[in-house]
Amino acid sequence: MRVTKAQASANRARVVETASALFRERGYDGVGVADLMAAAGFTHGGFYKQFQSKADLMAEAAACGFEQAAQRAAAQTPADFVAYYLSREHRDHRGAGCTMAALGADAARQSDAVRATFAEGIEGLLADIQNAKGETASPDGRHVSRAETLEMMARLVGALVLSRACPDDSPLADEILEACRGKRSGMQREGNSEAF
Prior knowledge:
10 helices; about 70% helix; transcription; DNA-binding; Homeodomain-like_sf; HTH_TetR
């Protein structure tokens, strides 16, 4: 039975979404093409009808993950986004979590296409966090520069990476998230020039 263009497009989207979650959960090297296609509900042979290589899928899957993050960021205030990002729920659900924290170190060793997708994704998140003037209002109402937004993103990603590096039941894993949440709150109370 011949597959329609619409069905082929939907099938491809399902493979990309499945790959995005599996790559975040297990890393790029932790997911084989056969396992990935089975998880998406397809046979291994169908992969090369849709993608030229696993590296091509890795780039598309990263873009999908960044799009999901952009949607979450757009739907929340900066303070709510930070609170979610530094939550144990986010830490424990890699497959549904931040692409940067889950795959940033892996991406650094991948093709130029994958790294370019990460650069575009980071730029997109910056644009979503910032308003049309290149600034965003912080929880205390002041405007935040691009450099401050980058610093905040780096701190959030770093905190999540460090927390995930600890055993799941480690008190240190929670302490890292709590310290970064507390630092953010402390900066607001003290009128520090940092935004988040």
